[in-house]
Design goal:
Elements (H helix, E strand, L loop, with lengths): L5 E3 L5 H14 L19 E5 L3 E7 L8 E5 L3 E8 L18 E8 L4 E11 L2 E8 L14
Parallel strand pairs: 1-4
Antiparallel strand pairs: 2-3, 3-8, 4-5, 5-6, 7-8
Length: 150
Amino acid sequence: MEYIKIRFGNDLDPLECSFRRSIDEIFRPRPVSPMFLSSERAWSPQMDIYETSEEIIVLAEIAGVDKDDLEVEINSKAVRISGCRSELPRTGNATFRLAEIQYGHFERILFLPAPIDTEVVSSSYTNGFLQIRLVKLPPEISHRIPISDE
């Protein structure tokens, strides 16, 4: 069984990610024809996050991305998924009528709806879907403290 690389860290700064995402959206080229495509431009794969009472599941649609080109980082509050989809060879004399498949680098940072246990994480990559299962931390238990008279 092969494993997907998962790195742990606390450097997923929400303000920096939001700013970078805004800048990327402003300057992202919107090609109409494959001749305008740049292999270096970023794209954003579709993702789902859903949860049960015990875990949070992240599902990423990244068909055509080699597992060795994927990177997953987690901390207790967020998941960062990044990678690269290489462009397939094209026929030199073909005339494209539609070109929607995006290639190049991608990165998504997903902030989780509940804190997770970073020690209990599993992932799988099947048929173009990356699934990451994250176990939720139990809710903090609060204790009532009696107030004494002095």
